[in-house]
Design brief:
With 64 residues, the protein is mainly β. The chain contains no helices and six strands. The chain has one domain. This is Transposase Tnp1/En/Spm-like domain-containing protein. InterPro entries: Transposase_23 (IPR004264).
């Protein structure tokens, strides 16, 4: 969430997160920012993209 971190040659900027796509929920959802030839979340599997912080859910699994 560092605003100076770059993803796809673009700085994150304020209120954006770097997100690694493992399993897309909606494959055909369009990416909000451009990334060379990637246009949908399904195409971005295995890569990092930027996504608005307000739309990111963070799940923490604590192991005791």
């Amino acid at each position: 969430m560092d605003p100076t971190h770059r993803v796809g040659n673009y700085p994150l900027g304020p209120n954006w997160c770097s997100v690694h796509i493992n399993i897309p929920v909606i494959w055909e959802e369009h990416l909000i920012r451009p990334y060379s030839t990637l246009t949908t979340i399904g195409q971005a599997i295995g890569t990092y993209v930027t996504w608005p912080q307000a739309l990111v859910s963070i799940f923490l699994i604590l192991k005791f």
